[in-house]
Specification:
The protein has twelve helices and 23 strands. With about 475 residues, the protein is of the alpha+beta class. Strand 18 and strand 19 form a beta hairpin. Helix 4 crosses helix 9 and helix 6 crosses helix 8. The protein binds zinc ion.
Length: about 475
């Protein structure tokens, strides 16, 4: 959802009108109220997210005590029913729900399965109705253990702070949410922590105020955001505040102990964003920056407007280029399904190639030939589409940039550059699939690309030479 303000005042009136004229309304497609789906239908994670409504805004107030790990939350959700609802689900892992209200009335709730919070409002919600949900909850958040990535979601830093990072699941570890990339919403966070702790999150700073038990830090992400791209990080941060030339705030935060080399790499962020803008079109987010942990985790993540970086290996220009390229390819244009994840990772990885070409003078054709030469048979077994749950991140970083470099040579530089630069604007704030990307590229290139996509993206095995060495590409000597 984007820019749509809730029309809450009309909700009660609409509901009573519908009750009075139920038979007539049924003819308009307003069928009897039914439970919303408990999943959003992803082919890999069918239970993630929910059906029957669309969230416009999360307004989350959290108190957190780093000493006890206790979190107390109050979530206010503004949403619109997309079907008539007798009940609907949110997603939340662990934590204790204390109360739920829908449009100010106490609602029944139950916890089922791994992460479902089933809410039955006192009055059914009618299709098209805007409504508000208020949830009070508390507890000690726990990360999700992922076999390949390690901990996901709310995590604890050894120095006593905490932070949120995870893909494909993360947000459910600390607030009630419709946990699907298909439901984007604005995200407002007010978090109270003891005075000695600092906070960084997505979007723009809205100031800090003294509160009982500490200081409340307010952050607002007004660019609709996918739940797993939301973050908060609590530490004794050093802040670096700058602006892009157009005034976009750039806020980066460094945990104690982050080396100077990392800060010097991040100091190039305005240059990196200018470069990416020259390739991908206008920067699609209302803020920028980075969160630099002093904690080794299994990944860095393109949390919106403010990627979060592991300590150690991650504080380098290529990683910063990669995570910021995701702001176009992954954040603004999110996957429709997790099987489409190459639309995020293949492009962010190829952004590193483009940076090396422009800034370091790397001959990409030579690099491509060398990578093809050293690729093992197993390398070509990986798929860039529908790779299977748990395998999303196995081949996209290695085979992905090769595929895009081959595509550039197959359709020619002008068409390729045009696609890279216009695709993010075409789907800005939305979701997209690999098939849509293929169709758009075919439109721009004025030819069918079925053979190319079958060879590189949908299929396995080493592509035939016409797809492996098109245009100016040649095997390594
Ligand atoms: Zn990535």
């Amino acid at each position: 959802m984007r820019g749509q303000k809730p029309v809450v005042v009309a909700a009660a009136v609409v509901a009573s009108l519908c009750l009075g004229a139920g038979v007539a309304a049924a003819g308009d497609g307003w069928g009897p109220a039914k439970p919303g789906s408990d999943g959003a239908g992803d082919s890999y994670y069918p239970q993630d997210g929910n059906g029957g409504y669309d969230v416009a805004d999360y307004n989350l107030k959290v108190g957190y005590d780093p000493a006890s790990h206790q979190l107390t939350g109050r979530q206010d959700i503004t949403a619109r029913a997309t079907q008539s609802l007798s009940s609907f689900d949110l997603d939340l892992r662990g934590l204790t729900v204390d109360s739920v209200k829908v449009d100010g009335r106490d609602a029944k709730f139950a916890r089922t399965g791994d992460h479902e919070l089933v809410i039955t409002p006192a009055r059914a919600l009618w299709r098209g109705q805007n409504f508000k949900v208020a949830i009070a909850y508390h507890g000690v958040p726990a990360p999700i253990s992922d076999p390949s990535l390690g901990a996901n979601g709310w995590q604890y830093a050894k120095a006593g702070g905490a932070f949120v990072a995870g893909e494909p699941k993360s947000a459910t570890t600390w607030y009630p949410v419709n946990d699907t990339p298909l439901d984007k919403a604005t995200f407002h966070l007010a978090i109270t922590v003891p005075d000695e702790w600092g906070v960084i999150a997505n979007g723009r700073e809205r100031g800090s105020v003294k509160a009982p038990g500490g200081t409340t830090h307010v952050w607002a992400e007004e660019t609709p955001i996918v739940p797993y791209m939301t973050t908060v990080a609590i530490d004794k941060w050093t802040f670096d505040r700058r602006q892009r030339k157009d005034g976009t705030p750039v806020v980066s935060a460094y945990a104690p102990g982050v080396p100077d080399a990392t800060k010097q790499a991040e100091a190039r962020l305005p240059e990196i964003l200018d470069f990416l803008e020259s390739k991908f079109g206008p920067y699609p987010i209302d803020a920028a920056g980075g969160i630099f942990l002093n904690e080794e985790i299994g990944f860095s993540l393109e949390t919106m407007s403010r990627p979060i970086y592991s300590a150690g290996w991650a504080g380098t220009v290529p990683t910063i280029v990669h995570e910021n390229a995701h702001q176009w390819y992954g954040d603004s244009v999110a996957v429709a399904h997790w099987r489409d994840v190459c639309l995020n990772e293949c492009f962010a990885s190829y952004a590193e190639w483009l940076w090396d070409e422009a800034k370091e003078g790397v001959d990409l054709n030579k690099q491509y030939a060398a990578d093809v030469k050293k690729a093992s048979a197993r390398f070509w077994d990986g798929k860039l589409y529908d790779m299977g749950a748990g395998n999303e991140f196995t081949y996209v970083y290695s085979k992905g940039p090769l595929m895009l470099h081959a595509l550039r040579n197959y359709i020619g530089q002008p068409a390729f550059a045009f696609v890279l630069k216009t695709w993010p604007s075409l789907h800005r704030g939305g979701n997209a699939s690999m098939q849509e990307f293929q169709r758009y590229t075919e439109l721009v290139a004025h030819r069918s690309l079925k053979g190319f996509f079958d060879a590189w993206v949908y299929g396995t095995g080493k592509p035939a030479d016409q797809y492996l060495f098109p245009g100016g590409l040649k095997p390594a000597a």
